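User: I'm writing a tutorial on reading structure tokens. Could you give me a worked example: one chain, its sequence, then its tokens, then a sentence or two explaining what the tokens reveal?
Assistant: Sure. Here is the example chain.
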Amino acid sequence: MLTVSECERYLQRIGYVGGVTPSIGNLQQLMVAHLTHIPFETVRLHRSGIEPDLDVGVLYERVVERGQGGYCFELNKLFQELLTSLGYEVRAAMARSTDTPGRVDPINHRGLIVRLDGKDHCADVGYGGPMPAHPLPLEVGTHAILGSDFIVERPREGWWVIDRISSKGERAGLMELSTFRVNEEDFDPLNAFCASVGSEFRDSEMANIRTRGGSVSLLDGKLTIRDQGCVHEMRLADEELEAALKRYFGLDYRFMR
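And here are its predicted structure tokens:
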């Protein structure tokens, strides 16, 4: 668990000024604050080629103190530590992305399940894409969250399917989330696999952060800004890339080039 001072510093990092007593409302605010201040990113991994260290102390130093981001094995683990320290009932979950039509990915994601008011919720801050910015009830049906609709199904025991309705009104895959018991060390080989050559996380420079009006994402030099339903894309020259990383994501990795 994090100390009181570490929790305070973490909350400062994400610009959070709300309550800390476990509740749906406070968890909603915590998730939005996290998603708008700490980017999902694989820039550090791509440039260094070094498997991320998942020690909580290392994660805290890197993400909170040094202002960096990370991917699911880093961000959701650190967020779990914060929530546990604040008194939430939270546990890690294995999951897989389902955002590529016709392709079944192996288990490649660390999810989070928070239990509040007798119900389980998906509370993910490490997906790097259009996941709900508020806790999503793990209940069969369609759930409206901040102007977007998400579909939750339970195709078999121990698994949930989470899809979304796109801006075109089409159903799009997001994630399959397992509720089976998982141990912390089970994520070590998954982290090693996702950080290895041949993985999209290792081979591409990706970044994504939520904004008040939408999101900003980067994929191998292509910047996409979504704001109030409008989409603006641009291809960045090498000399523009570092400035964009700093401006939109708060990342400074010039020393790694």
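What the tokens reveal: The longest strand covers residues 89-97. The chain has a mean pLDDT of 96.
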